[in-house]
Anoctamin (Acanthosepion pharaonis), 832 residues
Amino acid sequence: MFHLESDEISVDSFVPSKKNTPPGTGCFFKDGQRKTDFVLVYVEKKGRVQSSMSQFNAYRKKFITNLIKAGLEKEEEVVEKENNLHYIKLHAPWDVLCYYAEDLSFRAPLQVQPSQNVNWSAEVLQTLKIPNIMEQNVPNQPKSYYTCAFKVSKIDRFLGNQDRQNYFTNNQRSRVIWEILNATVYGKKKKAEIGIARLLEEEIFIGAYPLHDGPFEIPKNSLTHMRLNPRQILCKYWARWGCWHKYQPLDHIREYFGEKIAIYFAWLGFYTAWLHPAAVVGVLVFLFGVFSMSNNMPAKEVCSSGKEFKMCPLCDENIGCQYWYLSDVCMYVKISYLFDHPGTVFYAVFVSFWAVTFLEYWKRKNARLAHHWDVLGFEEEQERPRPEYAAKAKMMEKNPITGIKEPYFPPKERLPRILSGMAIIIIMIVLVLIFIMAVIIYRALISIPLFQNKNLRSNAALIASISAAMVNLMFIMALGKIYEKLALKLTQWEMHRTQTEFEDQLIFKVFLFQFVNFYSSIFYIAFFKGRFVGYPGNYKKFFGLRNEECSNGGCLMELAQQLSVIMIGKQIINNIQEVVVPKLKTYWHQFQVKMGDDFKSQCDNDFSLIQHEGLFQEYLEMVLQFGFITIFVAAFPLAPLFALINNWVEIRLDAQKFVKETRRPVAERAEDIGVWFKILESLSCLAVISNAFLIAFTSEFLPRMLYQYKYEWNLKGYTNFTLAYAPNGTLSQECRYLAFRDREGNYTKFFWQLLVVRLSFVIIFEHVVFSTCHLIDFAVPDVPESLELKIKRERYLAKQALADTEGLITMVNDEDIEPGNLDAVNNQKTTH
């Protein structure tokens, strides 16, 4: 149903009580009547030469004058400290709000409707008579309304039209002012001296934000829950650590922060909930390996071999590397079985289906939320040019759709910029690969002294692998931070017309780089390490060093080590940053402006907080995590469990950051998670291919299966079968090494048979999984039919409500719109 949210017209939205709010404290002007809808802040530093501030003062004066000409009202408040803080409080009067409400297509309520937003899991638990510990009664539940696009000429038909003070929500009022701020000139228009963004960048103003609805602290007195402000409600029922097992109050989040932020938390909560089955199955697969370890015949043969299998040195004899016995690595062979047993094949198939099913059901959830929050089809509307684009565009051209002249930047001038950006991306990716090669060389160099040490020889590969993974993680985090700043500058330079285009290009640049940055070392271990080693007497070399072989437990075990270090290490570092960095930024910010703890107004309290930095980093972190738990899950079945634990923490940290530590962001509308969904779909497809090759070429699953089929079902003698003899005369002593080769170093018949089996497995695995995934996609419609019928019915009722004042409105019957034709529904939805 249509539902009241930040861009719908509010009838009884929360407003701080004028009886309890002293005049001029920040929420209202000094008259106690006009709301403070937005605040601009600048500092007047004492002792500075006046001439150095004259240009800034001129810009500020012209900017504020133009804001007043645009219809806004202002009030200035000066806080005398070591450096004077100036708060320019802005208020949008009724006429301005009505004009922009129609221009920005705000939604207005026509009729109150009973809420029908029922949680499916709550229904299941109720049917099974199981207490629902996730349920919580959050006060001041937002009401649901039938709505239509706001029209000034129809103002008498909308609910609450008599209460002009509270008719528009705080989010709507701030969005109107933000639109004006971004289009207001402060200097010469030809020099692109337009908009609040440039004023903030040049520190002419040091803050621009809408106010929070009061403090977040819960009063200690007997104040009833119904009198808590929206920020306190979110703090008590969402941001507290004690709410980790509760449903998120998504409607409250959307009402306070807008749809874009609410969609992020809805997706994060949905993803976290779906991690539960993946984590449970992963733990069961891991436990299967633990309990069946004692029956692993190859491990038994290795551990009981004694000095039967004398192994060739793991580095050249001339630098002191010694011969060793296979029984020395008994423990590693046992541990490797935990990550390389038949259960991991089942789990790889399970996660492939899980990823596709998760995305299909998110599309259905997203459709319900978009309809419930009244943003279904929102992104199909004509999007305005970005303020930065409008400011820097060189000419004006007529928009072929609207017929209105708009800022225009010629494509011929954009093309060299885009090509230059692509060249820089390629250079940065090459730099990542250079660092990966440096880590490989480091691992090879540090392995030599470890292999030479008799006491450390059995643990040499493990020590080298883990230390190299940690070094690699440091390189990854450092390069990632540098590139993200570079990508932002490149995307700004490329002059993308709309905000959606800008964000999509930025996301593409950063994700492409971070994909290579985070996954390249893992792909190397999974598919390249140990493949081009050669054999005794004919070893392949890289920079004078022998190519790396897999560790004693096999490449899959080393892959699990690398994956766990990078994934878990990244999660720990990010969580520490989310706890520490905001506090450090807050302290530094307060130190810069010489603010004490004696804040008196809401302007002071909000200015002491740090600026909201958007959702880019939050989505990037979760999407990279999704790649870790799907692309390489065959090597590390516990990855979804660690992801689940991280996400429980992540939701609370993000909630606390939004409610307590950052200024209130300007509410933005959004229908879905945008281009991130396409990235998730690509990762799920890549996961199928990656897991097929992991099982076929990195795991020991197929060699063991073929050996069982051809020789011994119980794998007796498999260890000896996999070890080749070094060619005569190549080394000082006879020794064995892991390969399917004969005495001359040629591949055996079994190797070629195994290669055919491996390639066949990859083809069959991919075809079966992709075919089943397409069936799931076909069987699970993106938009439930019940929702389509509800959209038609509600559109009919909305038109019916205005039919008596418009003779031109044609009544719409349910038969007029075919199920599945949402374009027709959306076109009719914006007609009035």
